[in-house]
Amino acid sequence: MLADALLADLPEALQLALPAARAAAIRSHLARYLLADRVELVERPELAVWEIAGPRAGEALAAVGLPVPEAGRSAWLPEEEIALVRHDLGRLPAWELRARPEALAALAERLLAAGPTRLAGAAAREIARVEEGVPACGRDFGEEHFPQETGLEAAAVSYTKGCYLGQEVVARIHYRGGVQRGLRGLRFPGGLPAPGAELLHDGREAGRVTSAVLSPRHGAIGLAILHRRVDEGGALALAGGGEALLAPLPFAD
Predict the structure, then answer these.
(1) What's the domain range around 109?
(2) CB 238, CB 203: distance < 8 Å
(3) Are residues 54 and 155 in the same domain?
(4) Statement to judge: residues 152 and 198 lie in one domain
(5) How do beta strands 236-238 and 219-227 pair?
(6) Is residue 34 domain-resident?
(7) Whether 98 contacts 49, CB under 8 Å
(8) Cα dist. 158→20, 88, 146 in Å?
(9) pTM for this structure?
(10) Which residues pair with 222 in a beta bridge?
(11) Same-domain check for residues 185 and 229
(12) Are residues 35 and 86 in the same domain?
């Protein structure tokens, strides 16, 4: 997987949002296929990406007269120059808002005035992401992983759309055999482990903790891509001391 990106279909462009650390690599990758097409790749570092998420997020958008795109759809607000893209956060309905920071700040004021919207920072969003079992590109997975290892297969992979780079390998895994690793939820009874802490299964390395947060609802929890032998039972320990308990994703009370 080169990156986890979200596409918006705008009137005169396709807008791709992805982790900033992957921008240069993806730009170089896509540029190789522009030989005969009238396409220009333009980076837009001046744009910001905000998110509105929650069970009533759609109601909040509608309350201020904004469109509420369905799954896989996007909308363009020409007056504010805001792109609005549906992108659920696990079980939580969610929409990305992409525009210049001043336009997003003005929109936030409208949403707050209409209620029941509240501002939340990156830390709150990170807790929600882990609670929902949504892996982050560059943290929980990277180029060394297949889509089937990340839990994103259903959302990110099509087996009917025709040819694309990597299709043969991905399809072979899907139809002929599985992968050796997969995304798992973890609970830490002894508190949060250090980032990147090694996980041992019966004394053998099974993976590393990639995300760990202190959830108000679930306590110390995290994510890791682990070898499938952990599903066969046995102890899962943290190198250096402590234990980790497997938990179904998304986390439940």
Answers:
(1) 6-119
(2) no
(3) no
(4) yes
(5) unpaired
(6) yes
(7) yes
(8) 25, 18, 14
(9) 0.93
(10) 186, 212
(11) yes
(12) yes
Report residue 128 as tokens.
């929600």
Q: How many domains does the chain have?
A: 2
Place of tokens 């497997």: 246
* Beta carbons of 30 and 24 less than 8 angstroms apart: no
Same domain? For 67 and 165 the reply is no
The residue behind tokens 């570092």 is 45
User: Alpha-carbon distance 23 to 25, whole Å?
Assistant: 6
In a domain, 201, yes or no: yes
pLDDT tens string, the chain, 253 residues long: the values are: 899 999 999 999 999 999 989 999 999 999 988 877 788 999 999 999 999 999 999 999 999 999 999 998 999 999 999 999 999 999 999 999 999 999 999 999 999 999 889 999 999 999 999 999 999 999 999 999 999 999 999 888 988 888 888 889 999 999 988 899 999 999 999 999 998 999 999 889 999 999 999 999 999 999 999 999 898 776 799 998 999 999 999 999 8
| CATH number of the domain to which 14 belongs | 3.30.1360
For residues 194 and 135, give the distance between their C-alpha atoms in angstroms, rounded to a whole number.
18
Query: Which residue reads 């956060």 in tokens?
Result: 89
Give which of 132, 122, 133, 89 is closest to 223, Cα–Cα. Answer: 133
